[in-house]
Backbone:
């Protein structure tokens, strides 16, 4: 009785399609990673006709609609702001403070921040705005 030659079962796995899929996934994640919006402070700045861009590095105080305060994009309380602002201005080359306040913020709070900047020895205070598109608005 003759034995039939047994066919060898291939135990090797072809990974070429798997590598293609992995490269496509890497490409997909690399392309979509650039479109992630970084978290930031949501402000609707007031619009004016005479807005001019600020070129230099300045100390920035942001005031949100709900009264939140940020010094250079770091959250801070109203009691801590004067001391932190003074420390920030002591080490700064440019001692101008930019106030970025939401257009719906309480006017009294904006004036308080302006006063804190002056008390912290700011040489200049700039109110950040956006430029109006046309005069008819």
Residues:
């Amino acid at each position: 009785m003759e034995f039939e030659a047994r066919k060898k079962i291939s135990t090797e796995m072809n990974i070429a399609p798997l590598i293609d899929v992995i490269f496509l996934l890497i490409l997909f994640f690399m392309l979509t990673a650039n479109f992630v919006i970084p978290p930031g402070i949501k402000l609707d700045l007031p619009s004016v006709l005479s807005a001019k861009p600020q070129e230099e590095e300045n100390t920035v105080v942001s005031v949100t609609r709900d009264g939140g305060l940020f010094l250079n994009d770091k959250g801070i309380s109203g009691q801590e702001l004067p001391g932190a602002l003074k420390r920030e201005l002591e080490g700064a080359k440019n001692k101008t403070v930019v106030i970025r306040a939401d257009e719906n913020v309480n006017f009294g709070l904006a004036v308080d921040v302006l006063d804190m900047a002056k008390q912290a020895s700011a040489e200049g205070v700039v109110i950040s705005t956006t430029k109006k598109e046309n005069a008819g608005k």
